[in-house]
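Backbones bend. We report:
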Amino acid sequence: MKKFLWLRFLIVLAIFLSIALFTCCQVGKKTSVDPKPAAQVTENGFDISNKGPGFKVGFYNVENLFDTEDDAVKIDSEYLPTSRLKWTQERYEKKLANLAKVIEGMGFPAILGVCEIENARVLQDLTNQPNMTASGYVFAHFESPDERGIDVAMLYKKADFTVKSSRAIPIKFSKSSDKTRDILEVIGTLKGQPLAVYINHWPSRRGEDDVSEPKRIFVAEQLRKAVAEASSKNKNVGIVIMGDLNDTPSNVSVSQTLNAQEWTQSASTDAQMLYNLGKPLEKRNEGTIYYKGWSVFDQIIVSGNLMDKADKEMMVFKMDFMTYTDKNGNKLPNRTYTGPIYRGGYSDHFPVFVHIYVR
């Protein structure tokens, strides 16, 4: 009788162990072929998950951010309350609020280059907007010799970026009396990563190409010299060039003089190499400004030694509130004025940005 009970016990035990073993195998099999997907974090359609802390670095041509006061040494008479544009304090304040809304939408980049600003006052008024104060922005700025008085500047968060030096790189044409914007150089560290940042607004395309293009090529030559100087002083410094270049990534000034190329997986990560993160947009016929078609005038270019820490493509920030739809269904930048007609918009350019991932 006892032998029979032991036999029953062993049979039950064997069945139990077989079921347990089968269950474990099935669980292991399911885990190996059907893993639970990791959460994907995206921004503007780009996967930014698993890249560590990312800091936005951006640029925005804010289009004629003038105050309402006459400056005797600048050609700013168009932007006065008594001008044909009727540039009143109310319109000025709306412009500031609009720009602050865009910068907030961008997520308050750690570094934001800007151009077409009149002076330090408009920068102060912009950073003092109610939704901007918590960001802790300060700015680097120098008055430029541009006849209209429009300058470049860099907003940055002191908590993220520490400035070691800044200077204006003057642009003096040998064969022309024309004056243009200086290049702003700001050298510092982004959470320990050495950076040399260059804010640009190159000469416009007004007039014939054989007159305006050599000016942009000349500016590109001065910029390339400054970059080489910064790199020679610190081989670990990362170069970030941004601005409204009034040329596309394929134009001579950018692709040849500056020698900013498209990034590929086989490209060199040497600090002396420059890569244009706006080139993929140009290849897709996208852009940052629209005139008879899209152009990528606003660009971000970085050195090879940052390519393992930066996005491989520049992102254009364009939300519906910043746009209007033309008769062909294109969503275009909604600007402040169209000729003398007040639109109350934002800018004729879309801003751009990339992430730099530092640990």
